Amino acid sequence: MQKTELIFIPSPGLSHLVSTVETAKLLLQRDERLSVTVLIIRRPNDNLIDNYTQKHSSNSNTNSRLQFINLPYQENSPVSTNVLFGFIDNQKDHIREIVSNLMKNPSQSGDYKLGGLVLDMFCMKFIDVANEFNLPSYVFITSGACSLGLIFHLVELKYEHNQELANYRNSDVELSVPCFSIPVPAKVLPSVVVEEGPMSDIFLNYFKRIPEANGIMVNTFHELEPFAIEALSNQNKYPKVYPVGPILSLSSDDEQSSHQGYDEIKKWLDEQPESSVIFLCFGSMGSFEESQVKEIASALEKSGQRFLWSLRKPGEEGEGVMQAPTEYEDFGEVLPEKFLERTEGIGKVIGWAPQVAVLSHPAIGGFVSHCGWNSILESVWFGVPMATFPLYAEQQINAFELVKELGMAEEIRIDYRTNMRGEQLSEMVGSGEIEAAIRWLMAEEGGSRVRNKVKEMKERSRMALMEGGSSYNAQSVFIEDVIKNAS
């Protein structure tokens, strides 16, 4: 039996690593011929990464065919985005050495082939390493098919049609994007590709290399994004697309064990009626200035809805980028006076939230989300309808897709964005907008359309991963293509 090994290279950070490892575990469970080595680009003293890899290395189900290799790191951890990309690219020589060693001294015995490199979209320069060794390369996209199609379209506009994408900044123009069935307003394009300066070119130069790969795994499923997947599949100039998701880390045990306040959160949720609580959570980088916090608080209080709010403190600005949020010692320093007293019994404000554990709780009836793709997939998996409050990255296009393309979310805003450089926001989402969306989402007669669609997609997300399902079949095709390309 031929054994085939894949080398996965995720971008730095726990979220990218978790998606990568969950994908690797899924493939290993599907086919005993596969083994996986994950190369980890990490910052110094990243204990979360170390703890995560140690736990999965000791997993008896896959540890014989899953290994982790920590790449060397510079003593000064990168902060700004352009430095981070340089930090990634500088690993090229180390990766070349590891690939060479694996080809000479494989981690598996017997009839062995190195099947290729599976790259995060921000690790595209390592295609050069694959080419040097005449190995296939594949890309793993942690976002959805619509986002991938938009990336391809923007690259075409920039490099084939010589358009200056900065002209779309603050524009009212609508674009015809092949992976969307409706026009896409320029106001929801990712900030980084339409801003002036070097960052747009840096990002687009990574994206431009995706078509060089032999194939693209996308963390989505056909039933969720049929129009986009078919549009991508019908384009001969793009590599083969494998919609293999939803790939999620659904074990809430890790979250609960690392969250000291989980027992208190669960106790409070257990006391609430089924589907009665609106959950507000904005991702690992999600936070707001005090003025916006007060608008959200006012909306929650006026709505009269039960709520669980993950409220985190903005990180200090440093070297031109926003730092990760921290925890408030006292929520009273940012909330309206006596807000906690007035909402006692119907609402609970917390810091970091164990999101999977919360979304899976029967008391949760709605989710105000920043529209990160993992959060969207988790919300669909648990059948929780969303209201959109995007902040950065590709979240605006995700919000547009949910509200306008798929009809699976209520809109608070689809074009709101925070500045990841930590600059003061120039716009504000008023309490009236937020209150109206929350009321509509939670009302039986109001949010029923969205709620029914999400519940239907919940069942389809599970069916996609079952034997014979769309994603199960896509995974099978990917595995067979990897083994064939390695022969």
UniProtKB/TrEMBL annotation:
Pfam families found in the cross-reference section: UDPGT
Keyword terms, alphabetized: Glycosyltransferase, Transferase
Leader peptide range in chain numbering: none
Presence of the UniProt keyword Transferase in the record: yes
CDD domains attached to this UniProt entry: GT1_Gtf-like (cd03784)
InterPro entries given in the database record: UDP-glycosyltransf_plant, UDP_glucos_trans, UDP_glycos_trans_CS
Enzyme Commission number(s): 2.4.1.-
Entry's Gene Ontology molecular function annotations: glycosyltransferase activity
Recorded coiled-coil stretches: none
Family: Belongs to the UDP-glycosyltransferase family.
Protein name (record): Glycosyltransferase
